[in-house]
Amino acid sequence: MPKLTLLSQTPFKIELPKEVLNNKRHLTAEEIKVLKENRNISSDPSWNNVWVCNEEGLFDPSLILQSEFMGWVVIGSLRPASLKFHDLELKTGIYKSVLKNVKVGDDCVIHNVGFIENYRLENRVMLFNVQEMSCTSHSKFGEGILKADEEEKNRIWIGVGNENGERSVLPFTDMIPSDAYLWSRYREDKELMARFIELTEYGNKRDVATFGVVEDDAVIKNCTLLKDAKIGRCSYIKGAFKLKNITVLSSEDEPSQIGEGVELVNGIMGYGCHVFYQAVAVRFVMGRNCQLKYGARLLNSVLGDNSTVSCCELLNNLIFPFHEQHHNSSFLIAATIQGQSNIASAATIGSNHNSRSPDGEMLAGRGFWPGLCSDFKYDSRFASFVLVAKGSYQNELNITYPFSLLAPSSKDCTVHIIPGYWFLYNMYAVVRNKYKFISRDKRVVKVQHIETNPLAPDTIQEVVSSIHRIIELTGRYLKLPAELCKKMTESNPRPSVLEKFRAKAVLAKGEDLLQVAKDYLHQNSDAKFLLTDDRCQKRYGAVIYKPAQGYREYRRIVKYFAADSLIDWAKSIGKSCLSVKDLLELNDTVPLYSKWVNAGGQVIAEDLVFELFNQIKSGKINKWEEVHAFYDKCQESYGLYKARYSLSLLEYLYSRPLSAFTPDIYQDIMYDVAYVSVNMFESSISSRDKDYTDFFRSITFRNKEEMEAVLGKINDSSFLKDLKRATDNFNTDLQKMFQNLILQE
């Protein structure tokens, strides 16, 4: 209940930070008289608790009306002027407001602020119709730090990835998804976990009392409560309901905005973010250029840069950049989603209490795209760019095939998978993804490195793993009894070839069987048969459709990635064509990293991640700023390491060392890569052309003219024009790069 203290029994005492008094003075008798005439009052009858600008002509007491000063108040330049933001224009000054222990900067507007305590307002700040602004001495502004004498239980943790809290991370102002990912995934390293806490506490002056901050040119109007808030420069806050223990990062180049009915508690809002229309966020970190709106709920989660979330619920998630989820009936709970994802309406993705162990979780590679009304049983894992058909998936899933289509079976409890589906039927989406995310990246300052190319080391290593898995399963297929093999064969244009390889498979084991299966896939790439993979779904497994076609496309795409990486590397060293000597030197002098991690959007070699951990544990790295510098260093060498990785991929595909490559092999590589390049463009044209030629796409239009007015003309597509130029340039670079390799003697 409220505590009553009689003011007459409390002697007036002023304690204020000396740094706020620079270039300030006490009021003159004439200024005090004007203030009193304007019906202002002070808790100190002598008005010695008020300091104003010391420069002549820069303090006009007539601009303060019907206000009350408590504790101490320091006022900067106050002169007749007005501030205008959008349609709101107000005179500078302090009107009908109550201030306690507040420093006011130059040329500020404070109108109808019911109560503001322990804040520092910088210059040209506008406050209009705010019920309460206050800051406690123990505020952390959303960060997971402690003040002097506070117990460990007082820390604010964010329980990402799992509802049991065992993947929790501490928020801090500069946190990016890479930090949250490394902190949340390598939990077995207790020493590293302890050091992460120390990095977060670095520079924390526990004994220093805090004060709220509103930086230059911020506008706050029609708000109910701001408590323990740090508001960045050029922020615009209107109609917010509750902002408590938060930091709003904002700048002139990347202004942040908060709108009507918003409630933000215990979190950090990144530069250039927009939070509107009754959205709620509690225990959160939002990256740069994110949008949270239309009643969305973001709880115990880290949301990566360039993400848009509306209407839905997100709880206990770690979400990498470029996440899209804007449907009222969808939710996402206890998941790590590795970016460039799109969650459809009515997708109910949440943890299940399906055992006596802690709640389950989900891990999905980038490009995760579940269809309408999809739901999954936890624990589940998905490779990159898995397209999930509408359905209810009743068992745990482990989908290891990237760029695949996953669908439920209507006949039994298996799931059906088409490996490499995107390359076979939806190449337009692959190509568009490569460019659309770049164009949507509106960040001015890019701290978090983001790999936007669908074909990168993280996805290619999954492709290589899938190639090996298809070979392994094909070996099992060739060993099946005749009747069962026939049942698993949909069409076989070369029956004699199949029988020849089945006879070889009967006698083969281990590596020999793998080679037989690999040779069969190469020589019978048009065959359509089925494979079963028991690792993809608990209890019932999966049926793999078109494995030979998927295998062929996977191999081609690996070659494309290798050539693309080598072209980029050659350009970086000022070469348009490469020689055998160049490749052998690259192969011999640059370390090979064959395992890669998508760490928050940045693809980093796993060995380098462990090197970072060692530097943190040894004390060589002591603050997050130095961790981010390590990320930058990794990114600088990323192209070089990709090129070296590409050579190892080519050695894997051709089962021989680089020194044994012949001109014919380089010719084969170039042909396959050129095929993929041209196919990307032609498939994109074909996919877009369907919008104009398919009968059912036209039935809602009265005529062709109306359709073109709504959809535009296909020849006017800027994306396809840009893609045509990019394809021509790539093919030219490809021929130049390989010409010396093919012509070698």
Structure description:
The chain is α/β, with parallel strands linked by helices. It is built from 18 helices and 41 strands. The longest helix is centred in the last third of the chain and has 31 residues, at 663-693.
Topology record:
Blueprint: E1 24-26, H1 29-37, E2 41-42, E3 50-53, E4 64-65, E5 68-75, E6 82-85, E7 88-91, E8 93-95, E9 98-104, E10 109-113, E11 116-121, E12 126-134, H2 177-185, H3 190-201, E13 212-214, E14 219-231, E15 236-238, E16 242-248, E17 257-258, E18 263-269, E19 274-275, E20 280-286, E21 291-293, E22 297-303, E23 308-310, E24 313-319, E25 323-325, E26 331-337, E27 341-342, E28 348-349, E29 362-364, E30 369-370, E31 375-382, E32 387-388, E33 392-399, E34 405-408, E35 415-418, H4 421-425, H5 427-440, H6 457-478, H7 482-487, E36 489-491, H8 495-507, H9 510-523, E37 528-529, E38 531-533, E39 542-544, H10 547-572, H11 580-589, E40 596-599, E41 602-605, H12 606-618, H13 624-636, H14 638-654, H15 663-693, H16 695-698, H17 704-711, H18 718-743
Parallel strand pairs: 2-5, 3-5, 4-8, 5-9, 8-10, 9-11, 10-12, 11-12, 11-13, 12-14, 13-14, 14-15, 14-16, 15-17, 16-18, 17-19, 18-20, 19-21, 20-22, 21-23, 22-24, 23-25, 24-26, 25-27, 26-28, 26-29, 29-31, 30-32, 31-33, 32-34, 35-39
Antiparallel strand pairs: 1-3, 6-7, 34-35, 36-37, 38-39, 40-41
Helix pairs in contact: 5-15, 6-9, 6-10, 8-9, 10-14, 10-15, 10-18, 15-18
